[in-house]
Amino acid sequence: MQTISHIRKEYSLKALNEKDVAAHPIDQFSLWWDEAMQSEILEVNAMTLATTDADGMPEARTVLVKAFDKNGFVFFTNYNSAKSQQLEDNAKCCLLFFWKELERQVRINGTATKISTTESIEYFNSRPDGSKIGAWASPQSLVVAGKAWLEETYDYYKERFKHGEIPKPPHWGGFRVQPAKIEFWQGRPSRLHDRIQYTLQENGAWKIERLAP
Predict the structure, then answer these.
(1) Are 206 and 18 in contact (CB under 8 A)?
(2) Could you say which of 61, 191, 195, 210 is catalytic?
(3) How many other β-carbons are positioned within 10 Å of the β-carbon of residue 57?
(4) Which domains are present in the chain?
(5) Of all residues in the chain, what percent carry a pLDDT higher than 70?
(6) Is 188 among the catalytic positions?
(7) In whole angstroms, what is the distance from residue 144 CA to residue 195 CA?
(8) Each residue of 31-85: pLDDT tens digit?
(9) Residue among 121, 128, 96, 123 at smallest CA distance from 109
(10) What is the rounded CA–CA span in Å between residue 139 and residue 171?
(11) Strand 46-52 and strand 92-99: pairing?
(12) What's the pTM?
């Protein structure tokens, strides 16, 4: 049986060079996003969100990006959840996309702010009814009595909203992470990986640099 210390993979699919990347990191992300979409990667929009708690302890979990543009990356959650409370206390956070099929990852450091209620309602209305009811039923991150309690609470809201539209809960909505630094990582042979970093300057321009692997 192969031991953990001997697990290795040689990366060789593609390369990433400073002269070939876009001037703006979101344009570069869009190029990689399109390739990831065409590759039919499972859960292509899954990203790790890292925050810190009141004691400075890092916490990370997987969320789904639902939109991105030059203003930032948007995800949705319960505003009473642990991650939301942590972002309220310290809006600085990190996002990480890992597309193993393309031997790529993108790391984004930035600041999270709540999006408008209008934007949150627009997205909420596009969700399946089951997800809408789930947003009402789950007191996310809190300790609950058990699975049966959750199922009973779900059934309660399902019955409550069975005759009409399901409104967005007041405690549910989106965050937009506005990037200050974005790193594009492309796996390469012999662990000489390509790492291109974009850093936002005070004048609004992006500085592009290569990092050692």
Answers:
(1) no
(2) 191
(3) 9
(4) 9-125+170-211 (2.30.110.10), 128-167 (no CATH)
(5) 100
(6) no
(7) 43
(8) 999 999 999 899 999 999 999 999 999 999 999 999 999 999 999 999 999 999 9
(9) 96
(10) 10
(11) antiparallel
(12) 0.94
